[in-house]
Amino acid sequence: MNEKTISKKTVFEGRILSVDVLEVELENGRRSVREIVQHGVAVAIIAQLPDDRFVFIRQFRKPMERICFEVVAGNCDPDEDEAVSAKRELQEETGCIAETLELLGPIYPSVGYCTERIDVFFANVGERGSTSFDDDERIETVMLTETEMDAKIRANEIQDAKTLAAWMLYKVKKSSL
User: Fold this and answer.
1) Overall pTM > 0.90
2) How many Å apart are CA 45 and CA 35, to the nearest integer?
3) CB-based contacts of 155, cutoff 8 Å, min separation 6
4) Domains present along the chain, CATH in parentheses
5) How crowded is the C-beta side of 22, counted as CA atoms within 13 Å?
């Protein structure tokens, strides 16, 4: 089931991703083409407040042309430890300070064409300070109970894959947190 890379050409290099076109040889000798989005490591955080509510965000997403409901997330800076990145993103986007942080596990949003790995963390948060959005970010913080979040999922109000996967990791691992 392995594929041997015959050639690789980078056809696009952007600020946060690049696109490679690979010619591969299959085990049976046939050749095919693979288009791969190269993306660095990112983090997502399921953050819980002392009153047991969870912290999420809403922001406009141009690819979807609408406001999306999401878990707090962001890209790691080059050579930045994932836990450091998770704490930074949580504070930047919501003003929440992580008192504890535990890795729930990695997710790969779309293994068919993208290398992105998102490390999902659970954080207990305490005080809320000020946010520090990127210049091009407009983010609204939303607090929900576990029951409210589950209801949003049942009602198909959340379609973001990282949010759904992060919430599932939290739900199956919450008894050990």
Assistant:
1) yes
2) 29
3) none
4) 4-38 (no CATH), 40-176 (3.90.79.10)
5) 17
Q: Under 8 Å CB-to-CB from 101, ≥6 apart: which residues?
A: 83, 86, 87, 121, 122, 123
Cβ–Cβ under 8 Å, residues 65 and 155:
no
pLDDT tens string 51-73: 999 999 999 999 999 999 999 99
State the first-to-last Cα distance of the chain, in angstroms, to the nearest integer: 38
Q: Say if CB 101 and CB 88 are below 8 A apart.
A: no
**Residues 85/90/96/98 CA torsion (nearest 10 deg):** -40
Q: What is the pLDDT of residue 1?
A: 84
3-state secondary structure of 147: helix
DSSP secondary structure code for residue 114 in this structure: B
Give yes or no for a contact between 34 and 112, defined as CB atoms under 8 angstroms apart.
no
Q: Three-state SS for 39?
A: strand
The token pair that represents 109 in the structure block: 């949003």
Give pLDDT, residue 25. 97
Model confidence over 128-156: pLDDT tens digits?
777 777 777 789 999 999 999 999 999 99
